[in-house]
Amino acid sequence: MKLYYFPGACPLATHIALEWIGKPYETERLTREQTKEPAYLKLNPAGAVPTLVDGDFVLTQSAAILDYLAELNPEANLLGDTPRTRAEARRWLSFCNSDMHRTFALVFGAPYFSGGDEAIGKVLASKAVEKLKGMFALANQRLKGREWLGEQRSVADPYLFVLLMWADAKQLALPDMENLRKFQQRMQADPGVQAALKAQGLI
C-alpha cells in the first residue's frame, strides 16, 4: 500500500490513519510539478493528492481513502461498530472534507478564484475566513465534553487536526475555542500523529 502526498496537505489525515492502523505502508512525497507528469496522471487524472495505491486498486479523494482504510481494517475501529457510530464518523468526515476543506480552498486559492484580481481575492478570502470561523465554532461545540468528533476516535479526527494546522498556518484567530485546542493538544501528543508529522518533515 502506497500513499502519495504533499507535506502538510490533506493526505496527512490518511498518513495518520495509516499509523493508527499499524500495518506496513509506503509513502511518496511529490511536488506540485510531479502531479502533472504523465506517470502520475495515469494514477490520478486530476493531478492532485492524495492517491492511495493498494495492489491493483487505485483510489483518490481523501474522504473515500479514509473510509476505505477504515472498512479494510475493522480491527482498528476507525468508524465504529454500529450503523449510528459509523454514520456519525462519516458525518464529521464529510463536514471536514466537503465543507471546511472546500472553504479553505478560497483562502489558499484566492488569486486563482478571483482571476488575479487582488481586490476580489481579498473579499473572497475574507468571506471564506468568516465562514471557516463559524464552522470551527461548530466543531468546538461538538467537542464539548468529548474527546473525538464522533462517538469514538475515527477517521474524521485526523482531518480536523489537519484543518487546525491550516488555520494556524494562515493565522486564523480562533478565540474561546478551548475544546478545539484541547483536541489539538491530544492529537499532537498521539504517537501515530507524531510519527506521521515526523515522516513528512513537519516536526
Tally of contiguous helical segments: 9
CATH topology of the largest domain: Glutathione S-transferase Yfyf (Class Pi), Chain A, domain 2
**CATH class bucket of the largest domain:** Mainly Alpha
The low-pLDDT segments are: none
Taking all residues together, what is the mean pLDDT?
A: 97
Strand order of the largest sheet: 2-1-3-4
Shape: globular
- The appropriate CATH architecture of the largest domain is Up-down Bundle
* Alpha-carbon Rg, integer: 17 Å
Q: Strand-and-helix sequence, N→C?
A: EHEHEEHHHHHHH
Q: Can you give the helix content as a percent range?
A: 55-70%
* Intertermini distance: 24 Å
Main beta sheet: 4 strands, mixed
Structurally, how many domains make up the residues?
2
